[in-house]
UniProtKB/TrEMBL annotation:
One of its GO terms (cellular component) is cytoplasm. Residues 324-354 are annotated as: Disordered. It comes from the Bacteria. This is Coproporphyrin III ferrochelatase. The keyword Lyase applies. Its EC number is 4.99.1.9. Its main location: cytoplasm. GO terms for biological process: heme biosynthetic process. Pathway: Porphyrin-containing compound metabolism; protoheme biosynthesis. It comes from Tessaracoccus defluvii. Belongs to the ferrochelatase family.
C-alpha cells in the first residue's frame, strides 16, 4: 500500500498554549480580525487557569499522531507524521518550512476537525495556502476532507454513547427518564448558512443532525431502548448581538430539569478532550446539572477508538488514490435527505435555527 505522491503527513490542528503566559497571545491569534477586546480574552483565559494555564490539545494531538503513525506502519506505509497548528506553535508555516528543508514536496494534511464549515474546514485550507506561499510553494498541501458522516466515525461515537448511557443508567435505575444531549461548537448563523455549497442539507447544523440521528439509531439497537435526544451547542463567543446556533447545552438542561432524572452529553463535534470538552462539558455543564438536580455523565471522545484511527488512515489512503488519478474525490458532506430539523425529544414548535 502506498501514500504516493505524498511523502509526509501533517496533522493539522487548532493548537493551544502550554503555559499561562502563552494563553493571551494564543487567544489573540485565535480571534484575530473578530474585534474581541483583550478584556474579554482575559476573562475567557481564566478557563485555562483552571487547568494549570495550559491546553490539553497538544498532548492529545501528540498521542493521536502516534496512533495514526502506528496504523500507517501496520499497513506498510512508511512516511513521517508531523504536527502543524493554525493558532500556536508549531504553526503551519513553521512545520511547512521544516518539511521543505527535509525535501518534501507533496504533503497530506489531516485536519482534526470532522465537519465542514468555514472555521473547521475552509479556514484550514486558507491557512495552509498561506504557509505554502510563505516558502515559495516548495511544499504543496492537500487536505483530507470532512469525515464526520462516515460509518466508522458514527460507530465510534455510538460506542461512547452506549458506554455513558449504561453508566448513568446504573446510577439512576432502569425506569428513570434520561435525556441524551449531543453537543458541538456553536457558530454564528451566518457562518452556518455559508457552511455548505448552498443547500440547507449541507450546512454545519444539518451535518451534525445526521450524525446524531445515526449515532442514536446505533445506540438504540445496542441498548434496547431509544434515548430521547437532541442537538445542543457550547462555546458561544463574540458579540452578544450576533446570533449563533442554539440551544446552549446549559440552557437546555435548565429547561428540562424536573422532567428527567439525568443527562448524558455526547461531544460529537469534538474528537478529543480539549478545552471545549474539559471546561464547557466537564466543568460548566456538570455544574449546571448539579445545580438542577440532574445526574450527569459525559460520553468519551473518539480519538483513542481504534476504528476512528482506522478511518483517518483510510482517508489518507483515499486522498492519495485521488491524487494519483485512481479514484474520484469523495462527495461533499450533504445527504439526499437531511435529518429532521427537530430531534425526537424536542417539541415541534422549537426548531433549530435555519
Amino acid at each position: 500500500m502506498s501514500l504516493a505522491p505524498y511523502t509526509a503527513v501533517m496533522l493539522a490542528s487548532y493548537g493551544g498554549p502550554d503555559r499561562s503566559e502563552d494563553v493571551l497571545p494564543f487567544m489573540r491569534n485565535a480571534t484575530v480580525g473578530r474585534g474581541i477586546p483583550d478584556e474579554r480574552l482575559v476573562e475567557v483565559s481564566q478557563h485555562y487557569e483552571l487547568f494549570g494555564g495550559r491546553s490539553p490539545i497538544n498532548e492529545l494531538n501528540a498521542a493521536l499522531l502516534e496512533r495514526v503513525a502506528g496504523e500507517l506502519t501496520r499497513r506498510g506505509i512508511d512516511v513521517p507524521v508531523v504536527i502543524g497548528n493554525r493558532n500556536w506553535h508549531p504553526f503551519f508555516a513553521e512545520t511547512a518550512a521544516r518539511l521543505a528543508d527535509d525535501g518534501h514536496e507533496r504533503v497530506a494534511a489531516l485536519a482534526t476537525s470532522a465537519y465542514s464549515s468555514y472555521s473547521s474546514c475552509r479556514q484550514y485550507r486558507e491557512d495552509l495556502d498561506l504557509a505554502e506561499s510563505g516558502i515559495d510553494g516548495r511544499v504543496r498541501f492537500d487536505k483530507v476532507g470532512a469525515f464526520a458522516e462516515s460509518p466508522k466515525f458514527v460507530r465510534a461515537q455510538a460506542r461512547a454513547v452506549v458506554a455513558a448511557w449504561r453508566e448513568l443508567r446504573s446510577r439512576v435505575g432502569a425506569d428513570a427518564p434520561l435525556r441524551l444531549l449531543f453537543v458541538t461548537h456553536s457558530i454564528p448563523l451566518a457562518m452556518n448558512a455559508a457552511s455548505g455549497p448552498g443547500a440547507p442539507d449541507a450546512r454545519y447544523d444539518a451535518q451534525h443532525l445526521r450524525v446524531a440521528a445515526a449515532v442514536a439509531d446505533l445506540a438504540t439497537q445496542e441498548l434496547g431502548e431509544a434515548p430521547a435526544w437532541e442537538l445542543t451547542y457550547c462555546s458561544r463567543s463574540g458579540s452578544p448581538h450576533v446570533p449563533w446556533l442554539e440551544p446552549d447545552v446549559n440552557d437546555r438542561m435548565a429547561e428540562f430539569a424536573g422532567s428527567v432524572a439525568g443527562v448524558v452529553t455526547a461531544p460529537i463535534g469534538f474528537i478529543s478532550d480539549h478545552m471545549e470538552v474539559l471546561y464547557d462539558l466537564d466543568t460548566q455543564a456538570r455544574q449546571t446539572a448539579a445545580d438542577e438536580g440532574l445526574a450527569y455523565q459525559r460520553a468519551a471522545t473518539v480519538d483513542s477508538d481504534p476504528e476512528f484511527v482506522e478511518l483517518l488512515v483510510d482517508r489518507l489512503v483515499e486522498l492519495a488514490s485521488v491524487a494519483r488519478g485512481e479514484a474520484t474525490p469523495p462527495a461533499p458532506p450533504a445527504a439526499a435527505q437531511a435529518a429532521p430539523a427537530v430531534s425526537p425529544a424536542r417539541p415541534t414548535t422549537e426548531k433549530s435555527p435555519p
